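Cross-posting from the modeling subforum.

Setting up a comparison between two proteins and wanted a second pair of eyes on the formatting. Protein 1 (sequence, then structure tokens):
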Amino acid sequence: MPDILSIGECMIELFSEEPIEEADTFTRSLAGDSFNILVAAQRLGTSTGYVTRLGDDPFAGYLLQTWEGEGIDTSHVRTVEGFNAVHFVALLPGGDREFVYYRKGSAPSTIEPDDLDSDYIGGARIQHLSGITQAISSTARETVLKAAQIAKEKGIAVSYDPNYRHQLWSHEEARSAMEEVIPYVDYFLPNAPADSQMLLGTDDPHEVVAHFTELGVPIVAVTRGEDGAVVGVRDRVFEIPAYRPDGPIDTTAAGDAFNGGFLHGILNGMAIQNAARLGSVTAGLKLRGRGALTGMPYSDEVFSIYESLG
């Protein structure tokens, strides 16, 4: 059984080096936060599995072959009639990005609680959940909540990234969805400022850590881009510096890379502070590549740099 399971939607990614309105050429890849975290963890050596629906359009073979090529278990991917979502992404000055999504009504968004296998979840060590998955449809939101409940019943840890996207829903809807699952969450993985503003109206990661640890979340790790991360566990808070080998090329999936590295470290017995440092190195190396997959690093390089940093 895979150690980390993730539920969500993987999209076709069409990437441009220029602003979307000026671009003539787009490069095909694929991305989605629920998928990116699996790639990050899998490339470090953690076994992973994906729970999703796959549309039967011409992109289906490319998606499935890529997932399996990464070593991700696809035994719980269900192929259904429909299309796979697409998003366009382009670079802006400084490495930030702009997105345009075409995903409403996609095959993955029709996922429902009956797609979950409680034995499959019970065989994992971490069930990862995402606010984006909650946002893509009402049945997807129900599926995320049911997965959290099954995981808790089975004694499986739950990680959750709220990953707020204003294109998908309002602050109020996102907060409501987060409140549904937070009682089941062991590893809460928001970012600042986007998630922290949505959740609490603050840019201060320490306020986020304090708020959610007081609610009973055992571990809170707030990523904040070039400022690193703030991680809270019980009554201890750690400041984790960002690893930035050179200027960033593309920040796409850097947060997912951190989360994948962090969870990999936890599963391999690292102290929370060291697991977060591993996540920081993984995220920093990811900045070198275009799109979600290109720069996602492998184990040898990540651990070589991690160890060199002491």
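Protein 2 (same layout):
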Amino acid sequence: MSKKIVIGEPMVLSGDTLSLSKAIRAGDFVFVTGQLPFKGGKLMQGGGIEAQTRACIEGVRDTLAQADCELSDVVKSMVWLKSKEDFAGFNAVYAVYFPEAPPARSALVGEFLVDVLVEIEVTAYKPSI
């Protein structure tokens, strides 16, 4: 496979269509855009780091499914947290979703363009059929 394939529908936030793809399959790799915590189609306001982390990972899982992948196919994740004090709560939830052979991971603390506590981006590896 020599070309990239767009996975998922266009992304919309606050009524605006964003200039990015939900995910891209390039060969045997699937690159998933950073997932924000959504619940019921709306950006979560509050809920704490645990609930927001679950929402992000479930968004990642749902996007991966559209590319015929699972969380177990994730080889690398990148995590942004609003506060380093949230790391323990984030890590406890993350460990539930990646209990064995967890992916390589980087984590940073920083500001977000929207009012959330966490964002998670992943790369999955699954050879195409």
